[in-house]
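Morning - flavin-adenine dinucleotide inputs below, output right after.
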Amino acid sequence: MANVLIAGAGLAGLTTALALMQRGHRVRVFEQATELREVGAGVQLGPNGTRVLIALGLADAMRQVVCVAAGKRIRLGTTGQSWPVFDLGETAIERFGAPYWMVHRGDFHRVLLDAVRAACPEAIAPGHACAGFASHGDGVTLRLANGHTVTGDVLIGADGVHSRIRQQMFGQGRAAFTGLIAWRGLVPMQSLPPHQRSLVGENWIGVGGHVVTYPLRRGEILNFVGVVERDDWRVESWNVPGTTEECLHDLAGWHEDVKTIIRNIATPYKWALLGRQPLDSYVQGRVCLIGDAAHP
Ligand SMILES: Cc1cc2nc3c(=O)[nH]c(=O)nc-3n(C[C@H](O)[C@H](O)[C@H](O)COP(=O)(O)OP(=O)(O)OC[C@H]3O[C@@H](n4cnc5c(N)ncnc54)[C@H](O)[C@@H]3O)c2cc1C
């Protein structure tokens, strides 16, 4: 049995914690936030991911909150013309042996959190930011921002896109702006006209941008992401609010269905998309990186 330290209680840190605990390891997760929650946005989980969650025993809890979309279609940004791309639903299960789920990140995070706490109520330490680590012959010592240290056999850096653990292992790295920004938001399905309430994911294509929409939470909410070329916004944050007018301006000329969705987003968020060079390795001795810390 290994004594495992994990930095970060996001989707990657919690999934890994649960998997390791189920294999009999002792796991402690140190999370900087005092309140454990996720940003309000959707995430799509293909059969490669849902297969893992099902193996971890999360199928019943996830089925309460996911949307099993019937399929995906492509739509043209100007005219709205549509083409089916592929079927999901039962087809995904028949073809890949596991379902395709669309889920609100907050719902997904809550399922993981409950499962980790059920396995070990003290496993997660909120309000404990990780500041750095020191490797030694027979273990690794994690340094916390409050001045305390904890020792384990291995350390997993799951502390997200601005990972402190990655910075210590491989330096700052340079994030390059891609020239794209993403608008995102959630819309109550009931606020949309009936023809826009189907349980199908849509990928809209247009000049200088694309839009992705898909249903969440059993079809009660629609997730919206609009990616456009724009170089005057460089803030890499998921939580900076923009305005409906600005979002509509960036997607002017797009089909009325897209504009209807935008008008029904309570708070559209704008997020500059940055990229980093892939790392040559995610491992250094007894320390490794996972999730956005590894491939931001
Ligand atoms: C809006 C959005 C939509 C996405 N859609 C998809 C999708 O459809 N499909 C897909 O596969 N992927 C998608 N992704 C990407 C995927 O969701 C991320 O790759 C994933 O959430 C990363 O999880 P993570 O746990 O590595 O990082 P995070 O979720 O960022 O979690 C990191 C955690 O570490 C904590 N932390 C940070 N620094 C410290 C520190 N110093 N000490 C302690 N704790 C710390 C943070 O507070 C946070 O809780 C999407 C991402 C976003 C933002």
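Note: Residues 105-119 form the longest helix (15 residues).

O.
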